[in-house]
Design a protein that fits this description.
211 residues; mainly alpha
């Protein structure tokens, strides 16, 4: 039983990282994905903040699933999510005002992030706390990976730095477009194209193998 439970928890965790990655598969949370990924540190900060809210809110929603009236469940979910978002908002403000200013209103907008509300409605409200929090952790990790994938590329090409450290010296000519909105769309499109190509290639190989 322990082995089965461990395997099930692992599947729950990996679902958000690969099979249902919020950024590259489900294409959710695009506003923060495109807006805050001008640097790797902004990307990972937003990812970690969203992950915390995901885990905490899904855990509480799961624990309250049997006592929450169906008629007000969405309102209850939003109140729970907003509570944890407020805590994250104040924490980031206390840790670093520079980071807080860089992330701007997108911290507060975690409340209406469809990834979190979708996990609460589709998974946490139907599963026990461990499974709900494990799934939320995977979704948060997948979202963070997606943000970081964009943030790393945009910072390297747009500023010639990574986590604020210079990579190419003073002679590097930054691609300024990468830190502008069109650069975000271009990098996101490139990653989606790569994942789509990989999925089609995998399907073609499987079809050849079965043939």
């Amino acid at each position: 039983m322990t082995t089965v439970a461990t395997a099930k928890n692992w599947d729950e965790f990996m679902e958000g990282i690969w099979k249902q990655n919020p950024v590259f598969v489900m294409v959710l949370g695009m506003c923060p994905t495109l807006a805050v990924t001008v640097s790797a540190i902004n990307a990972i900060s937003m990812g970690l903040a969203t992950t915390f809210v995901l885990i905490a809110s899904c855990g509480l929603v799961s624990m309250m699933r049997n006592i929450t009236p169906k008629e007000v469940r969405i309102a209850v979910y939003i109140v729970i999510i907003a509570t944890f978002v407020t805590a994250v908002d104040y924490a980031i403000q206390a840790i670093s005002l520079t980071l807080y200013d860089a992330l701007g209103a997108f911290i507060q907008l975690i409340v209406v992030n469809c990834i979190i509300l979708g996990r609460a409605e589709a998974h946490a409200a139907r599963n026990p706390p461990v499974a709900a929090m494990t799934n939320a952790t995977g979704m948060g990790a997948g979202f963070t990976i997606g943000l970081l994938a964009l943030g790393v590329v945009r910072e390297i090409l747009g500023n010639g730095t990574l986590f604020g450290l210079s990579l190419f010296g003073e002679g590097f000519q930054p691609w300024v477009i990468m830190v502008l909105p069109p650069g975000g769309f271009f990098v996101l499109g490139s990653w989606l194209l790569l994942f789509s190509w990989r999925a089609r290639r995998k399907q073609a190989l499987e079809a050849t193998h079965h043939a």
